[in-house]
Amino acid sequence: MTDQGNRTYKRLIDYVKQEVRAGNLQPGDRLPTERDLALRLEISRNSVREGLRLLENMGILYSRQGSGNYLSSNFNQTMTEMLSFMYFIKGMNDDEVAEFRWAIERSALPLAVSRINEEEKKELKEMAIGLDAAPDEDKRIYYDRQLHKIIVHACRNDFLIASYEALTGLMDTHIKSMRKAIIDRMESRHELESAHSDLAYGVAEGDLKKAMNGLEKHFTYINIDLHKD
Amino acid sequence: MTDQGNRTYKRLIDYVKQEVRAGNLQPGDRLPTERDLALRLEISRNSVREGLRLLENMGILYSRQGSGNYLSSNFNQTMTEMLSFMYFIKGMNDDEVAEFRWAIERSALPLAVSRINEEEKKELKEMAIGLDAAPDEDKRIYYDRQLHKIIVHACRNDFLIASYEALTGLMDTHIKSMRKAIIDRMESRHELESAHSDLAYGVAEGDLKKAMNGLEKHFTYINIDLHKD
DNA sequence: AGAAATTTGTTCGTATGTATA
DNA sequence: TTATACATACGAACAAATTTC
After folding, report:
1. Nearest to B163 by CA among B107, B225, B61, B80
2. Coil, helix or strand for A172?
3. Which of A:89-108 have CB within 8 Å of B?
4. Residue range B77-220 in CATH 1.20.120.530
5. In chain B, which residue's Cα lies nearest the Cα of A45?
6. From the CA of A1, how many Å to the C1' of C10?
7. Helix (H) or strand (E) holding A64
8. Using CB atoms, which residue from B75, B86, B155 is nearest to A58?
9. Is the Cβ pair B58, A86 closer than 8 Å?
10. Tens of pLDDT along A73-120?
11. Tell me, in Å, how far CA of B210 is from C1' of D21?
């Protein structure tokens, strides 16, 4: 009996869902006041609030004291946090995370190559240079992560971006050991850096083959038996 | 000012997070009573409850009236529902969805090939046969979806599975038109069915190349400029 | 089996801080 | 500046379900 659909606040959620679906509520719109909602849905204000908090935490709306509850237009940030939290509580299996990350990056790459803008290209090159010149492992980790992040963002797909961000948020504690594991498998650290270099310059120069090669080299050293064409 | 980190109920969430991280709270464990928590965290019971509802809706815990609040062990189902809801509210851009789905399926495929069990292989073949023999489009859609679903589940990666399920839940309304669009681009319906056949038998027979060919053929007809090796 | 105690579910009232006209 | 509307937070009360004795 883990499931009980009897929760009163679900009426509020269903209400919002329905209003969105019907087109009566659009991003930025203000919801009726909590008291109105309580009256309309025949539940207490507290129950209304429970539902509102839920939606707020999902990033679907935001509350402004003294003003009202508004449907949010962009809740990517909150969506990311939430995903990250769910993943965290669920318990992360390193293999699962690596597989998922690989799934996202691999698919984001071709999209990124065709959609990246000049600003991002510039940043990407800077990261590749910085990574190459980084004096210590901490710096390298920073450039490493920025590099991957820029590429995924350049794909312009919010699902991919949100999922990736959620993962990297989780991986913060693990990234050091993961990087170390990769390096151990490679003949030297430079091999990893050259993989990154291919990846970055491939994307920046619109050379998908080169970029994909770099990415494959990068991920090959994580212990997954991956698809090799 | 969409962000206000001052919410009182966050204390409860932080508490749970910390207790989970410290190992003091494990799946199935009962939390302290709401009144205890209110006292301990120095917030009102209402605020405690707001936090609890949040976590419950995330599937992280469940409440039983008269008994207590328990940390949940598996909340994959809720995670899926939640993802689906977030995606729904966010508004689906067909291209984004297609790209994301492709990302998941492509990466799930090699994993599925190496992890699928006999039971699933059998089902998969049945779906392929059923699809071939289906008398009308409704039936074909059913077999179509089941086929893809079995493959993704066979990859044994909860992130991939949850994301995929969330997407297909969304796509229910769009799947007909999408299928129609694909068929229109193919020379005939049989071409789509043969793609599915390659996919299903490839997985069932452990032939990754065949399966991947089927999948690529399948997705090529969706209007994305995808990575072609 | 039954009664009492415990715990969550739901609602109301009130005080307070904030935004808006 | 003032007045009003609104959300925030708390405490208390009772109902309903469960557990304990």
Report:
1. B80
2. coil
3. 89-90, 96-97, 99-100, 102-104, 106-108
4. yes
5. B46
6. 21
7. strand A61-64
8. B86
9. yes
10. 666 666 677 777 777 766 667 788 888 888 999 999 999 999 999 999
11. 67
CA–CA dist A33, A2 (Å, integer)? 32
Mean local confidence (pLDDT), A198-209: 94
Whether A228 shows a pLDDT value over 70: the answer reads no
SS3 B70: strand
Encode burial over A220-229: b for 16+ CB neighbours within 10 A, e otherwise.
bbbebebbee
Domain boundaries, chain A: 9-71, 77-220
DSSP state of A70: E
Q: Amino acid letter at B181?
A: A
CA distance B22 to A88: 13
A88 contacts B83? CB cut-off 8 A: no
Q: Which residues contact A50 (CB under 8 A, 6 or more apart)?
A: A8, A9, A12, B49, B50, B53
Helix axes A34-41, A45-57, angle to 10 degrees: 110
CA of A38: nearest nucleotide by C1' is C11
Q: Both tokens of residue B149? A: 């679903």
C-alpha span between A73 and A167 (Å, rounded): 23
Interface residue B85 vs chain A (CB under 8 A): yes
CB contact under 8 A, A49 and B50: yes
CATH number for the B9-71 domain, one of 1.10.3720.10, 1.10.287.110, 3.40.50.620, 1.10.10.10? Answer: 1.10.10.10
Whether residue A8 lies within 8 A of chain B, CB to CB, comes out as no
∠ Cα A157 A158 A162 (to 5°) = 125
Q: B18, B226, B227, B229: best mutation site toward chain A, by most A Cβ within 10 Å?
A: B227
Contact B160 A99 (CB under 8 A): yes
Q: Which of B143, B4, B209 is nearest to A62 (CA)?
A: B4
pLDDT digits (tens, 9 = 90+) for B52-103: 988 887 778 999 999 999 998 766 666 777 777 777 766 667 788 888 888 9
Backbone angles phi, psi at A52, to 5 degrees: -65, -45
Nearest C-alpha neighbor of B97 from the set B167, B144, B158: B167
Stated pTM of the model: 0.77
Please report, to the nearest 10 degrees, the dihedral formed by the alpha carbons of residues B133, B137, B142, B143 taken in order. Answer: 30
Q: Mind telling me how many Å the CA of B130 is from chain A's nearest CA?
A: 28
Evaluate the CA torsion angle A77, A78, A84, A88 in order and state its sign.
positive
Q: Which residue is nearest to nucleotide D19 (CA to C1')?
A: B67
Determine whether the interchain pair A54/B49 forms a contact, defined as Cβ–Cβ distance below 8 Å. Answer: no
Residue B228, phi then psi, degrees to nearest 5: -115, 90
Residue type, A64: R
